[in-house]
Design brief:
Structural class: alpha/beta
Distance between the termini: 41 Å
Helix content: 25-40%
Shape: globular
CATH topology of the largest domain: Fructose-1,6-Bisphosphatase, Chain A, domain 1
CATH superfamily of the largest domain: Fructose-1,6-Bisphosphatase, subunit A, domain 1
CATH architecture of the largest domain: 2-Layer Sandwich
Radius of gyration: 17 Å
Number of domains: 2
Order of helices and strands: HHEEHEEEEHEHEHEEH
Strand order of the largest sheet: 1-2-3-4-5
Length: 241
Amino acid sequence: MRDVEVAASAARAAAAVLLDLRGGGLSGRALGDAGDAAAQQAITAVLAEHRPDDVVFSEEAADDRSRLEAGRVWIVDPLDGTREYGEAGRPDFAVHVALWSAGGLGAAAVALPAVGEVLVTDPAPPLPPAVARPPRIAVSRTRPPAQAEEAAAAVGGELVPLGSAGWKTTAVVRGEVDAYVHAGGMYQWDSAAPVAVALAAGLTALRLDGSPLRYNEPDPSLPDLLVCRPELAAALLAAVR
């Protein structure tokens, strides 16, 4: 299997167990905790079978610091959007599986279990054409940052609250929104796979200060990002810097 096929297989395995659990009797925090654990197990089983020599860097496991010397590291968020997953009927949660190698992101997959989609880096999803409307900017539904307000003002846009970093990033990829602005806290696993897919699709993805998003760094924190259509990048970066 190619790396991208391994990523997609792992993401699909986690999506399947998440949907099965969601159809049971659990809800809220209990469902979220069960989903985190089951999705982690599903992903690590696939990676252990197909890439047993690689290191796994996951939100749901202790940080194996050997990753800092490794040539291949899978950066995983088994359930991105635990809060949304625990709320009946909400679709905006995701599964992230990305491979870091040779100093940067490579193969990746993002599963959107509630809508039955898996987006991968190869073949990259085609970027929909721009729509004649005020730009739509995805933000956190619980803590939208001030920078997003400034970005919206700069381009005459509107804010769209959504759950899960993966869902918001893939909403840009799918053309449902035009940008995603986040500040105030995030970790490498929250964005690695969605950013890899977004870059493969031709989107711009950067830190809010315009610097590159770097992964497999010693500090797991990666607290901010901008993902947007390339034609909006200059104006949005000027607004959020």
